Request: fold
Amino acid sequence: MPLKLPIYMDHHATTPVAPEVFEAMRPYFLEHFGNAASRNHAFGWAAEGAVETARAQVARLIGCKPIEVVFTSGATESDNLALKGVAYAYRDKGTHLVTSQIEHHAVLDTCKRLEKEGFHVTYVPVGRDGIVDPSAVARAITPKTILVSIMLANNEVGTIQPLAEIGRMCRERGVLLHSDAVQGVGKIPAGVDELHVDLLSLTAHKLYGPKGVGALYVRMEKPRVRLVPQLDGGGHEKGRRSGTLNVPGIVGLGKACELAGRVMPEETAALTALRERLRSNLFLRLDHIHLNGHPTRRLPGNLNVSFDFVDGEALLMSLKEIAVSAGSACTSASIEASHVLRAMGLGEALAHASIRFGLGRGNTEEEVDYVCNRLVEEVTRLRAMGA
Ligand code: PLP
Reply:
């Protein structure tokens, strides 16, 4: 089959909706358009039934009870609800939270907001390999700590955190643990009991579901987590999140979870093989390149590399037919180096010269080889130009 351009290798940013997921959603836009809260007619019952099926599908993937799943508009909302909801509910007990320096902005900026409101937050550093040290988290906990929030897998360098170990330690100390598990759910096992987490955020669009829908797992027993809702309204989701449910989106999330659970073992093997093909060929053919993140404790589809003597932006601009991400984020005034790479100890130059590859369902060996050839070509050209 001829290679089709452009090539998508940015699956940490978002994923395409799987055809099976799209087909499952379609009837809930058209014939079954009812409001899941309409308890007195067949349209409402059909919608409610579909939502409950999806709740069970999500619960099965993360090993919890369906009632512990709260549907939201995505992980940004789930993270906000987890952190603010717990902070406000447990304020009498303490005002200290612990997180890591490499969290997504949905967690970091929520922490910043809480700091403005009088809470205190410790941002635990990470090692050069991007792994959070459980003993550093343990050391950060004080008698006033009410919540620890550590992501399952990092969205830039793909590092998988020792969450079960952190969870066991938090449980012993009676501190709640939240995890932004967006990048891990559907890619690696994420059972809430195995990880000892009390709250967990996930989002559909990172696992071949639609954008704008996600969920927050909230443990109901041992311990029962209390949350102050962040949206006031009709008391949907047992009062935990008001707002008319996005029925087609929720159906899509459920189906995507079911599918991910089914294909995870083969997909992990296939993506790891593709990732290693890309990594080994790049490292064989180019000098002065560096792997960012842990060599093995990383998401199957993640590769993050920095190139000496090359500007990352210039490199991306020269690879317009390839969709990947740079380790820098454009803000209105400047281009800022990734806070994740900086926390891992990379200097400005290398942090700016990094590329994140997010391999996913549908990528092929031919695509990997094309991307590798083009990268070698452009890095060599830019280095020769001194760009
Ligand atoms: N957390 C992580 C680790 C992410 O990668 C993302 C998405 O980029 C989010 C949170 C935000 O998710 P959403 O787009 O569903 O709000």
